[in-house]
Amino acid sequence: MIGASPGLSQMAVAKRLGIERARLVHLLDSLEQRKLVKRIKSKADRRSHALHLTAQGETALAKFKRLAAAHERNVEAKIGKENRAQLLRILAGFT
Prior knowledge:
This protein is mostly helical. About 60% of the residues lie in helices and about 10% in strands.
C-alpha cells in the first residue's frame, strides 16, 4: 500500500487496512528498523507522518511482486485457469 500510494499518513494506512493505529505503529517500527520504510514529517500537519518506501523497500517490494507472480503462474499451471479463477472467487468471499 505504501509503495502504491507514497506519502499516505499512518492514520490513512491504518484505516485502509482496517487495523488499529497502535498496531500499525508496531508494524512500521519493524519495517523502519529493517530500513524498508521511512516516516517523513508532514509539511501540512506536524503531528502526522507521511510514509514512503526506502530504496531497500522498493527493491524488496519488486522482489515480492516477482515471487507472487511466479506463485500465481505455478498455481494456474497445477490447477488450470478456470479452477484458479473459481478459487479466487471463493477466497474473495472471505473478505
